[in-house]
Amino acid sequence: MMESWREMQLVLGLISLLCFWTSLLAHAAATQVTYDNGQLLINGEPRILISGSIHYPRSTAEMWPDLIQKAKEGGVDVIETYIFWNVHEPLRHQYNFEGDVDFIKFFKTVQEAGLYGILRIGPYVCAEWNYGGFPVWLHNLPGIELRTDNQVYKDEMQTFTTKIVDMVKKANLFAPQGGPIILAQIENEYGDIMKPYGEAGVKYMQWCAKMAESQNIGIPWIMCQQDNAPQPMINTENGFYGRWDWKPNNSKSPKMWTENWTASFKMWGLPARHRAAEDVAYAVARFFQSGGVLQNYYMYHGGTNFGRTAGGPYIATTYDYDAPLDEYGILNQPKWGHLKQLHEVIKSAEKILTKQSFINKDIQNNVMLTTFTDNSTGKSFCFLSNIDSKQDVNVDLGNNGKYFLPAWSVSLLADCNKEIYNTAKVITQTYLKTYKPSNVDTQFNWLWKAEPLKDALTGKGSFTANKLLEQKATTVDASDYLWYMTSVNIDDSFGKNAILHVNTTGHVLHAYVNKKRMGSDWSSDGKGFVFEKAVTLNKGTNHLSLLSATVGLKNYGSFFDMVPNGIVGGPVQLIGNDNVTKDLSSNEWSYKIGLNGENKQFYNDKLSHNKKWTLEGLPLNRPMTWYKTSFKAPLGNDPVVVDLLGMGKGHAWVNGHGIGRFWLTMIAKAPQGFECSEICDYRGQFHDTNCMPDCGLPSQRWYHIPRSFLNEGDNTLILFEEMGGNPTQINFQTVIVGKVCGNAYEGSIMELSCKGGQISAIEFASFGDPQGTCGSFKKGSSDVPNTLSVLQKACLKKESCSINVSGATFGFSNSNSNTPKKLAVQAVC
User: Fold this and answer.
1) The pLDDT of residue 441
2) Catalytic residue (one of 80, 89, 128, 259)
3) For this structure, is 187 an active site residue?
4) For the residues of 397-464, what is the DSSP string, one character each?
């Protein structure tokens, strides 16, 4: 008994000692984050920080380490993410923080990589996310008004915010606890939409600040796009560019840019948006030239809107954002590499830039020299910028050298007398990615089943109302679909042939009369439409069944939560002989939420395997049909996609995981008044209509299947086809880098690399003034003849090669031209 007691005392002593040392180590690792005199201070040291947005639910937990490591290799110091309320609290006070939405694990992964974190709680996030990140059950709470001085809303917001903060504290993730999180955000871009809320909006914003401060997290809070943010909130800016003359509303606050948009999001019916690496780099350089201390790329990795998470209306499943890391986590070159080089140069001058001692000098029209000086050491660093969008210039700085400065570019000068980087002079290689057919399955056996419609087509719903209800309030976002069903008596005087007229604020509508499909229609822009179809009626009782579908709930704007969805209010009318109109809007309507296939979980083969699927008579182009097939995962580690070409509109699942909405029949075209272009000029102010490739093609054809969704053996793909499609064209592919290009100015080093493979051919090479871009190069007015042979000798059958871009390399004596020559190369991996 005594020995047992002594052993217990020894164990307790060891535990106490371990706790003491753990506490001591945690205290020693604590990071103090403060700010003063326009500087952001980490443990008292002023810092220049590069941040990048990676949203944990737009990737998977298995992808996080690789994405974060690639961001670190790209020169990123900080990883930023929103917290998505509707993901974590889908039902009131019922929470989910597991698997791919385990944000605590995400920040621990950030910490393990040695990076800092920014926690953007919101909890309104916008983010092109369904309903702006709000759970739709909020909409139905009695007396609630969102994002204003409303106690019902504020109570829910504070409860959720406090829960997130408490979880972070418990995990010791705030910087003073030894964690990575150095900044936290409350609300999001409220200043942009606050005015219509009046005085209640001002009171709400002030309450947000006080509520956040009461959380006692020990790090600064930020409010983006909130110029009147109350102290001690730090107000920050968002946009394609940081405003040159913008400053925080407190002289002590650091100048921070929380969202540098690397391009824009994809929408159904619109083309992709591309923003050139040169322009993103220009914006970053100008921000730091103006005295900024922290900028965040939105996005650094965009990822995928899995399931029904895309907002809208009409935001696509892909959220690639033309970010430095593409949707699949592949380097988006040259953007990733060009920015990496910029980060290295900025960080090399950090000690000088943080002194906040700089002088701006106009050299000539649109050309400015900004000199940063460390008075204690006498060292200097300069930004030389040309903001003209068309005119290249040659700048003579006397004893500090002569410089060729392209239009819309910034040169960074070490010691103010040596150019070490120019935003328009890209020497990083470009990747041309391609889709490689699966090396496992090429033929698939398709099974199918019809969506059960009998109950809906005969008007059997779950509840009734003598009015047309609003869709999101009725479904509480349990489904994109809501059935509206009623009956009407028709006599001979009205006639059998009529027009069905439906005024809807839904996005898509399918109409059935007496169990027969009358047709479908949809809004061109997601803002509602008028549905009119000729219908045939019977004498006596007629059953009318309308299926309304949403394609992402609105996520932005003043009072966006009040924008109606569905056939709410109508009117729904039948127009018969002599324009006699029957208004059915006040009829007794029966309602059914969702599809029967959804409710029976046809999409999850583990749960629906005992429900009969049919092999024979595969129907093609048939609306309201479920399809299923099995496949083997493609070999290797390259990202996997499914090509859904041939399908119409619907939803897709792999092994029960929702990989998103698809809408192949929604063809990309430029907005009215704009034109699509495959050639993008980086010069001048960027707008998301500047550069729009891929018009005339489906808005999205390929859908990401993360490797973690796949099994080693058989896998199941299940599709719900709403409009009518042909699954026999579907195939699985991997995404690879098929070709690499270089396009570099004279005086630099060009590197080409086929990571994991060899350069097998040189398709194009020109030293002179080559024209075009990767994939469409052509020779210009000058070209050194033996350029191709030099490149072949230097690069063929090698994984990588480096070329000194100079006349000597190609046996050419430099001309007297003031414009340096360029080398353009395209190689096959």
Assistant:
1) 74
2) 259
3) no
4) -GGG-EEEE-SSEEEEEETTTEEEEETT---S-EEEEEEEEPSS------EEEEPP-HHHHTT--SEE
Domain 454-594 in this protein, CATH class? mainly beta
Q: At what angle do helices 151-170 and 198-213 cross, to 10 degrees?
A: 20
Average pLDDT over residues 321-346: 98
Query: What are the DSSP calls for 639-688, one per residue?
Result: -EEEE-TT--EEEEEETTEEEEEEETT-B--PPTT----SS----S---T
Residue among 130, 111, 37 nearest 68 (CA): 111
Q: pTM of this prediction?
A: 0.94
In this structure, are residues 114 and 148 in contact, taking their beta carbons and an 8 Å threshold? Answer: no
Q: Where in the chain is the domain with CATH 2.60.120.260?
A: 433-450+599-664+700-735, 454-594
Sequence-ordered list of residues with C-beta below 8 angstroms from that of 415, at least 6 positions apart, any chain? 379, 380, 381
The ranges of the chain annotated as CATH 2.60.40 are 357-423
> Which stretch of 33-42, 104-113, 675-684, 726-735 has the lowest confidence by average pLDDT?
675-684
Catalytic residue, from 89, 145, 189, 451: name it: 189
Q: Closest Cα to residue 562, out of 148, 104, 3, 263?
A: 148
How many residues are listed for the chain in this entry?
829
Q: Token digits for 185?
A: 């955000």
Q: In the predicted model, what is the mean pLDDT of residues 483-487?
A: 98
Answer whether CATH 2.60.120.740 is correct for domain 746-828. Answer: yes
- Which are the contacts of 702, defined by CB distance < 8 A and separation ≥ 6? 435, 641, 642, 643, 644, 733, 735
How do residues 186-219 score in pLDDT, each as one tens digit?
999 999 999 999 999 999 999 999 999 999 999 9
DSSP annotation string for 201-214: HHHHHHHHHHHHHT
Q: Residue 103's closest CA among 125, 118, 124, 114?
A: 118
User: Based on the number of CB atoms within 10 Å of its own CB, is 617 exposed (0-12), middle (13-18) or buried (19 or more)?
Assistant: exposed
Q: How confident is the model at residue 795 (pLDDT cuts 50, 70, 90)?
A: very high
Question: What CATH fold (topology level) applies to the domain 31-348?
Answer: TIM Barrel (3.20.20)
Buried b / exposed e over 726-755, threshold 16 CB at 10 Å, is: bbeebbbbbbbbebbbbbbbbebebbbbbe
CATH homologous superfamily, domain 433-450+599-664+700-735: Galactose-binding domain-like (2.60.120.260)
- Residue 96 is classified by DSSP as -
Q: What is the DSSP string of 235-272?
A: EEEEESS--TT---SSTTS--EEEEEESS---BTTS--
For residues 527 and 448, which has the higher predicted lDDT (pLDDT)? 448
Q: What is the DSSP letter of 302?
A: -
Write the CB contacts of 9 (distance below 8 Å, at least 6 apart in sequence).
none
CATH class of 357-423: mainly beta
Known catalytic membership, residue 532: no
As a whole number of angstroms, the distance between CA 810 and CA 784 comes to: 7
- Going by C-alpha positions, the residue among 704, 669, 707, 708 that lies closest to residue 689 is 669
Say what the pLDDT of residue 809 is: 92
For residue 207, which phi and psi values (nearest 5 degrees)? Answer: -65, -40
Which amino acid is present at 126?
C
Count Cβ atoms within 10 A of the Cβ of residue 296 and give its class: 0-12 exposed, 13-18 middle, 19 or more buried.
buried
Say whether 137 sits in a helix, a strand or coil: helix
Q: How far apart are CA 635 and CA 642, in angstroms?
A: 14
Q: Which of the two residues, 813 and 340, has the higher pLDDT score?
A: 340
Q: CB within 8 A of 17, min separation 6: which ones?
A: none
Coil, helix or strand at residue 110: helix
